[in-house]
Amino acid sequence: MSDLSDSRAATNALLGALKRDHWGSRAVVRFLGQAADRSARQAARRPRALVQITTLHCLLLALALARQQRPGPRWVAASWTLSVLHLGLLEERDRLSPADALTLLRGNLPATVLGASHWSGGLAIALDLADGRLARHQRTVSPFGDYADSVADAAFWTWLVLRHEPSRTVRAAAIAAWAVPVATVTAISVRRGTMPERPRPALLRPAAAMQGIVALRHFLRR
Q: I need a labelling partner for 53 at 20 to 30 A (CA). Which of 24, 32, 79, 168 fits?
């Protein structure tokens, strides 16, 4: 399990074992242990990527500490931990791409002074478009980039609406738009015991629309 080079195959094997054991408490503990072991082994095999991620997050941490930004240090620490634990998703690559760095930067906007600016929503959308185009142009698309992109979106936009959006209706609609795809993918994974394909574009359109609405409202608000 730990030595499977294909991250999707490894995940499917872990989920399949959970399903066979009916998601019992021992099976869950074993699942977490095996997943952590594989994550550590995959990170050790990619020292360049590990150094890149650590350097980037050290810079972000310095920015957060310099401005005494909240929830800066804890946010950056959580981002570093998640990134390191999922280095196996780089598959055959041993380093981050520029697109991956842009994605991680977007996910950490709340930890910097940029997150509180009235144009942070527009900046997040611009970074989202840029990292996707850059990854396709440089042919560096990977499961790691897909995972980081989803987490960056969920983290930044949830933070923005909870912290800066005054309308309860808009907050509820925005969170629901991002929660539905995640809940759908999770439910399918549990029921099938395998990872499903990425959510269809139609399922993600409400979230994209809400991002534009929230960004515009945040920009116009003083």
A: 32
CA distances from 99 to 15, 19, 147, 206 (A): 29, 35, 13, 24
Neighbouring CB atoms inside 10 A of 5's CB total 11
Beta carbons of 63 and 27 less than 8 angstroms apart: no
Can you read off the two tokens belonging to residue 62? Answer: 């310095």
pTM of this prediction?
Answer: 0.84
Question: How far from each other are the two terminal CA atoms of the chain, in whole angstroms?
Answer: 53
- In angstroms, the CA 94 to CA 90 distance is 7
Q: What is the pLDDT of residues 17-56, one digit of tens each?
A: 777 877 788 888 888 888 888 888 888 999 999 999 999 9
Q: And the tokens for 67?
A: 């401005």
Let me know: does 30 contact 17? Beta carbons within 8 Å. yes
